[in-house]
């Protein structure tokens, strides 16, 4: 009697494939997967995925390069909300999560393509992908040229190698290597024409190392070799000029504890005795605005805990002892202030009492310039050269986003000194160095001090020179070297054809002595061609 056994179908477990298709398209079962060609819609979604990845890449690059303006960004948030917090942290965290997520989807999609699996992106991924694109699509434009430059350089080397191995010229190669000539940058220049290193001005001292606008901050800046000190000046209720950036005292003092009912009032509506009684350093230790408190010594921490608000006279006396210059940004008091009409004279009196030379003090307000003819004059407004000369102004103070290379060159040609602010990153300092800017104002003099040479000048010259060097090196090869070096990269049929061409060329030149032993493995014999 024949006994029939039931047939069992055994499937090999494909855990890795199940993971790929499950995460990408929520297809965890074997029957849900397919090797059919992907639909046009799914191919379109893959293109959108690639575009979203590129946008997020530029968005991440944008925020990395925007590190120069983190402090200004946080300060603007403080003025709107009234609370000091680092607003860049959630943005950077969200960017990191979004970029990692889209990158992971890109890897899964490429794995699907390499394994021949049908693309079928899950609808939740599609929604998140579209939202990500909408968020960043308006913020990546300014940096597209940088990605294009990197792509042109990388692609140029690949095409160059292919063209040389193929033994033929190509117009594409010429276009790729001529493309950098169309890119404008102040750092594409001859090294010999590089201007002297820009002087660094300590903007509110060295606010990343000590509380801004305090004597400790100015001392830290002087230790970093700054050429000048920049400060924000307000006038107290009893006519004493003191240093304060904000309109109120809430952010940089403990006024909420000492005068809780008056913490939202204008800083200039307090007399000097009240202002002097406030602590101006504890906030820095508690909030750690630049994440630098951890690197402070115990001695510096103790000094910070006892800092007070600095007067203008104290700051100028320190500047005079160090043989440095001072740049003053004055804040006019409100109309109800008793010194509303005499605030300039109060400031000039403080300058005289400090003993500093008037030639070492730079004046920024546009009002009553006729009273301060003895001081150096600068304008915070971007005016024409004719207007600046008419007002008796010989220098210009511009935000870096307003200072194009053309404008800088025009002002310098007309003997107008240019100071650019804020400059906290080495790359920006390098670009301005190449532009010939005489001085920059920085919150991070300790960072700029470590820049020995313009970064972009070195990078771009080295990349372009390396490309030309490779091309010149390839042109020095003779045909035999090029053909022989390409043998190991060619398929067998192409290799045989190249060998035959090489043998025929040697025969035509009359070389018959040792060439019969060139390629014994393929059985070539020159004698058979004679």
Automatic annotation (TrEMBL):
It is found in: Membrane. One of its GO terms (biological process) is lipid metabolic process. Residues 198-452 form the GP-PDE domain. The chain crosses the membrane at residues 43-64, 91-115, 127-160. It comes from the Eukaryota. GO terms for molecular function: glycerophosphodiester phosphodiesterase activity. Its main location: membrane. InterPro entries: GP_PDE_dom, PLC-like_Pdiesterase_TIM-brl. Keywords: Glycoprotein, Hydrolase, Membrane, Transmembrane, Transmembrane helix. One of its GO terms (cellular component) is plasma membrane. Coiled coil: none annotated. It is a multi-pass membrane protein. Belongs to the glycerophosphoryl diester phosphodiesterase family. This is Glycerophosphodiester phosphodiesterase domain containing 5. It comes from Salmo trutta (Brown trout). The lineage of its organism: Eukaryota, Metazoa, Chordata, Craniata, Vertebrata. The gene is GDPD5.
